[in-house]
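Lab notebook, design round three. We kept the backbone fixed and only want residue identities now. Task for the bench partner: fill in a sequence for the structure below.
Input structure tokens:
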């Protein structure tokens, strides 16, 4: 027969058995949280500028490729005006015989990044953003002409463009074209740190 106790000696009622978490469940949650925190730190701090610079260089190479395709399709010349901290797309307007900006403003690089460009092996001195009113007025008077020309035949001005961090040991990336092939992004060997 039955003993005087109900439910037996080793059993706990269903409500009490599900009242807490097991040690394994707590450890699994802690490991998942630690992994997520580690990924957040890596993506935000350590690899941030390198990734951002690589994305910006890829964006510029893609833009030049799209402009080369559009130039052939639209039978129109496009240009890229490069400054130390920005770049802007222009198109040649045949009715006014002038270069016109394609958009309202230039694409600004992060303040820690800079551009340099060589055309046909000759380095160009790139203007910086106007710091005072006089420089801004002089810049508005002079017609802006792009340095890098993309012809309706699909040809591109031979160029070598470097995009990099302003600090001496920073990452430096290069986009270059011989005039016929589209540019690719390459890390410069021997300079800076690898991405």
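Proposed sequence:
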């Amino acid at each position: 027969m039955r003993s005087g106790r109900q439910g037996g000696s080793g059993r706990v009622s269903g409500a009490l058995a599900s009242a807490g978490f097991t040690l394994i469940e707590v450890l699994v949650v802690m490991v998942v949280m630690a992994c997520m925190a580690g990924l957040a730190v890596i993506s935000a701090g350590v690899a941030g500028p390198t990734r951002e610079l690589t994305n910006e260089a890829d964006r510029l190479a893609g833009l030049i490729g799209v402009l080369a395709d559009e130039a052939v399709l639209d039978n129109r010349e496009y240009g890229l005006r490069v400054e130390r901290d920005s770049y802007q797309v222009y198109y040649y307007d045949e009715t006014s015989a002038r270069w016109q900006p394609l958009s309202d403003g230039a694409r600004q690089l992060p303040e820690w990044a800079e551009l340099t460009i060589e055309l046909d092996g000759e380095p160009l001195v790139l203007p910086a953003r106007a710091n005072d009113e006089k420089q801004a007025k002089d810049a508005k008077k002079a017609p802006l002409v792009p340095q890098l020309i993309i012809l309706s035949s699909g040809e591109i001005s031979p160029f070598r463009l470097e995009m990099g961090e302003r600090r001496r040991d920073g990452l430096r990336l290069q986009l270059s074209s011989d005039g016929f092939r589209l540019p690719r992004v390459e890390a410069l060997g021997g300079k800076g740190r690898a991405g």
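Keep this in mind before ordering anything: Residues 190-195 have pLDDT under 50 and may be disordered.
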